[in-house]
Amino acid sequence: MNTKVNICGVELKNPVMTASGTFGSGREYSELTDLNKIGAVVVKGVAAEPWQGNPPPRIAEVYGGMLNSVGLQNPGVDYFIENDIPFLRQYDTKIVVNVCGHSIEQYKSVTRRLRGQDIDLLELNISCPNVDEGGMSFGTDPVMVEKVVYEVKKEADKPLIVKLSPNVTDITATAKAAVKGGADALSLINTLTGMKIDIHRRAPVLYRKIGGMSGPAVKPIALRMVYEVCRCVDVPVIGMGGISNGEDAIEFIMAGATAVAIGTANFINPTATADTVKGIEEYMAKYGIEDISEIRGIIE
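RESULT FIELD:
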């Protein structure tokens, strides 16, 4: 049985990855699950300088998932290079670095700093607020998507995955723009925007009022968007959004995804990634599937 997948020339032992922002650098989870079983670890967003993130409260549980407004808190690219890469290289898993920034120059700065480093893939987080454009997300305007991807791609010495925002009218427009700009692969979806109000305090639960919604409730939306994107571009797609187990993962693969990423499920089940790998293998054994590619994109 072959569960290996190839993303832009990088071979993963299986299609299961972590979703950025939900797994840190893997250090915390390494005490609870075997990182060697995961196809790739996608680390929390890495910025040019340390980011403090947003003030609390910045996490809220909601029906079918959670809201977060963490604000991409991270210690910066220099810390990541010095501490996290050596840690992750102890394990038989690929390293994907999520690059974040509030301006094109910040994105480019991180990408330049990662040149020559012992990592496997880059993931560009275009859902960051663009300070040069009044705080609008880079990822909601196809023209801006193409521009930022084009500029960052020039600095990259590893394949570039672009992570798409679902907070758009037509996900295929931004997908095509990212590929036109030079994206080697796409990942989606990032979080949907949502809100929760404490009716007793008569105030929003989150300090920033609005946050990113993730978890099982977003899965049908994510699956639909992955299906649409896989049919409009000719690059590998990494599907995510509400995936909790092997059956969820198989749905995304049948929709066309080359790989899948698990996020919110890690918070309630620290072994969700390894469990999903096992679930995929059990499904393949049950239905006599010799190679995972046999079921990729079979939904017309």
